[in-house]
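wait is this the right file?? whatever heres the structure
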């Protein structure tokens, strides 16, 4: 079952939310706010790092096959 990590935009609390069903809405475990920012990985990991390795073989993306 999927576990998502959220960060509260109101108080900055970071918590894991176990999504038991899709209709369930996460809320901050500290202040109850629903203004949440979904975290995809641990802190410091930049999104798009994997795509840079992909583009290195073809910088323009227009290389012929
Ligand atoms: Zn909060």
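ok assuming it is, sequence goes like this
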């Amino acid at each position: 079952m999927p576990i998502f990590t959220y960060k509260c935009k109101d108080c900055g609390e970071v918590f894991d939310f176990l999504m038991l069903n899709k209709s369930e809405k996460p809320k901050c475990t500290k202040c109850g706010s629903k203004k949440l920012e979904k975290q995809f990985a641990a802190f410091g990991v930049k999104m798009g790092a994997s795509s840079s390795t992909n583009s290195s073989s073809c910088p323009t993306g227009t290389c012929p096959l």
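The chain has a mean pLDDT of 79. so i think its the right one actually
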